[in-house]
Specification:
This protein has 324 residues and is of the alpha/beta class. Helices cover 39% and strands 19% of the residues. Helix 3 links the parallel strand 4 and strand 5.
């Protein structure tokens, strides 16, 4: 029998050795936690399809932000349900809306916590689409002006970073121009550059009350069957001034994350979306999986694929587990 000299298992023999040769590391510093703010005071209502995620009034959002910061998570992304909706989503740039008030309050209490503002119109419009309508078509160029207003209002409220998620053509350039004109040259843009028309968003529409009243979003979000198109979107957004590129969803699109990573040097974010989260929580609640092990393995896979930043509803639990 030939003597066995090549033994990869030597590098797996103990926890100490495994940690020395581990290729990918996961840290709380990799995470962004999404917060959903709503009108009112002392509101904390669990989102039915997203266990352990809540609709929070501004006062409770500040409390949660403190907990997040103490766990070593460096950033939050703020979404909101407005007090009113209309055809153009004007509450999205209203300085008295929950999102802008939450940004101001959190920045006052936690000036070092990075605040990311989601810029889209769907939860603010009466029709649930991501822009101004012309009939049943979302008018791309008319929507750009509205998105720019939202971005500037969020920067004025304390946002450090703007994250446009609408998938309108030219939105990054319009937002960059508006931010610069308003004096916010250091507010960065994390572009939802590669955002697919995905079934994994279902629970988010429960969280943000953003389901379209007719049709769907396939005329502006990407076809899940396409991968070459991803780099076209990335290149356009970088040319328009995006600082960070996002791929959304994450788990079913890790091939896209790797493709983007192999082609650009900019930071890459992924969004571990609501459907991905809800499936894990449901399976764990039934005792079918080890939640901690599955979550950490899943998040590690996103880092391994090339992501620098992971927006995830698992962030708080994962940060605690990583401290153990």
């Amino acid at each position: 029998m030939m003597k066995q000299t090549l033994r990869p298992r030597r590098m797996r023999i103990s926890e100490g050795v495994r940690s020395m040769v581990q290729e990918t590391t996961l840290s709380a510093k990799d995470f962004v936690y999404p917060i959903f703010v709503v009108p009112g005071e002392n509101v904390k209502t669990e989102i039915p399809s997203m266990p352990n995620c809540y609709h929070l009034s501004v006062d409770n959002a500040v409390k949660l932000a403190k907990e997040i910061y103490e766990l070593g998570i460096p950033a939050v992304e703020i979404f909101g349900l407005p007090e009113y909706k209309d055809e153009i989503g004007s509450s999205a740039w209203d300085a008295t809306s929950p999102v802008q008030r939450a940004m101001k309050a959190i920045k006052k209490e936690l000036p070092k916590l990075v605040i990311i503002g989601d810029v889209c119109m769907c939860q603010y419009t009466s029709h649930g689409h991501c822009g101004k309508l012309c009939g049943e078509y979302v008018d791309n160029d008319a929507t750009l002006e509205l998105l720019a207003k939202v971005a500037v209002s969020q920067a004025e409220a304390g946002a450090d970073m703007i994250a446009p998620s609408d998938m309108m053509d030219g939105r990054v350039a319009a937002i960059r121009e508006a931010l610069d004109a308003a004096g916010f040259i250091n507010v960065s843009i994390m572009s939802y550059a590669v955002k697919y028309a995905s079934g994994y968003y279902g629970p988010f529409r429960d969280a943000a009350d953003s389901a379209p009243q007719f049709g769907d979003r396939r005329s502006y979000q990407m076809d899940p069957a396409n991968s070459r198109e991803a780099m076209k979107e990335v290149e356009l957004d970088l040319a328009e001034g995006a600082d960070i590129i996002m791929v959304k969803p994450a788990l079913a699109y890790l091939d896209i994350v790797r493709q983007v990573r192999d082609n650009i040097d900019h930071p890459i974010a992924v969004y571990n979306v609501s459907g991905e989260y809800a499936m894990v929580k449901a399976a764990a609640a039934n005792g079918w999986i080890d939640e901690k092990r599955i979550v950490l393995e899943t998040l590690t896979s996103m880092k391994r694929a090339g992501a620098d930043i992971i927006i995830t509803y698992h962030a708080i639990d994962a940060a605690r587990w990583l401290k153990e």
